[in-house]
Amino acid sequence: MTGEATPPLQLHDIQSGVLRPRPNPYVATYILLRVDDRRQGRQFLRLLCDVVTSAATPDRPDRDTWVSVALTHAGLRALGVPAASLDSFAWEFRQGMAARAAALGDVGASAPGQWEAPFGTSQIHLVLTGVSPDEHRLEAAIGQARKAIADLPGIVPVWRQDCRAPPDHKEPFGFRDGISHPAIEGSGIPGDNPHERPLKAGELVLGYRDETGAFPPAPVPDVLGRNGTYVAFRKLYQDVAAFRRYLRGNAKDADDEALLAAKMMGRWRSGAPLALCPLHDDPALGADPARTNAFLYRAGDPIGYATPPGSHIRRCNPRDADVAGVVRLHRMIRRGTAYGPLLPDGVLEDDGADRGLMFAFVGAHLKRQFEFVQSEWINGGDFLGLGDAVDPVTGAADGSGEFTIPRRPLPRRLRSLSNFVVTRGGEYGFMPSLAALRWLADLQDTGA
């Protein structure tokens, strides 16, 4: 019933990786594991109960270092989770990301058939993530899990990706990253936009009311679903050389290149938003966390003369812009970490290196959060009256796309948009609570 009181967030039971923003600077590692022996899999989860940190005690000295674990649907099955529980998870999660490829725009070079192994298969059971400000603390945090993996032959590492913050804190395309993080009601962790009300906890964590006033559907039994959430993992390769060539081919000079890049992203490369400095970059603003995300669109820029409606950041978070639908129902936590060597400045030809971002999109509603934003806001334009125009930076462009920059007296149009970002792999995971980790570790086989 909607009249029931919403319980306070049980931070001691929620994984820190659900609510806590990524530190900056950072190092991170993602390890995919396969469970070949269900009893050893349960034993491994039991050991992880002492490794995975909770979102409680936010003032602890090591609060910016955390290890988290997520399980795929195949992983839950491999651990022997009962059928009734397996069938109670969200439909999208049960299908897996590869099966959702068409809806997500993972076609062509991004199609599952082109993904790195073992993505797109049933061989991914656990996703172990470690994040820290430095290598020493990361190794200390994740070392116990690595030792357990070495001691348990039934737990098989099948893939790993190491990430780190570039020296200038910019992602491979050259833009400052890790800027936007929403506040979650009851978490005690502030957001970075003072104009945005904290989201209801149920948008991010199961067992609490969401923005509709209802409790999100959760797996059963209650101990398995409560205080857990869903996460969409993505490895996204960035074709930096192609992006630079596109800018060079459509700009009049170096200053115009910088402007076009900013218009496509919605921010200057320093991180300074066009909404606050539309005519020129302001590195001091871009480096100021108290100001760089403190803006809205509708009051000062309804047409998009400063920030084009089709720009990347306005699509991913329209804030107060007039769009089809309720923006707050599609908010989620986005957490990206860069991998691979940077392409040297000025180089326009690809050097063959693998570079890009590992992304984790966290939310209680896979369908109306991650999948909606990906299909309707990134790879569609109807919600902003843009027709079939896709995101100019991350959209699934086929070489015929257009991007419009509102301008007086006539808009500026960029044509022949290419695919600058390619999906190299992805999977849906469920991040259980610490109590659910113990429940999974204590599962018993029946009928044996």
TrEMBL record:
Names of required cofactors: heme b
Species: Ramlibacter pinisoli
Origin superkingdom: Bacteria
SUPFAM superfamilies: Dimeric alpha+beta barrel
NCBIfam families, sorted: Dyp_perox_fam (TIGR01413)
KW Calcium (keyword) present: no
Every DyP dimeric alpha+beta barrel domain range: 65-144
Pfam families per record: DyP_N
Keyword annotations of the record: Iron, Metal-binding, Oxidoreductase, Peroxidase
Recorded GO MF terms: heme binding; metal ion binding; peroxidase activity
UniProt protein name: Dyp-type peroxidase
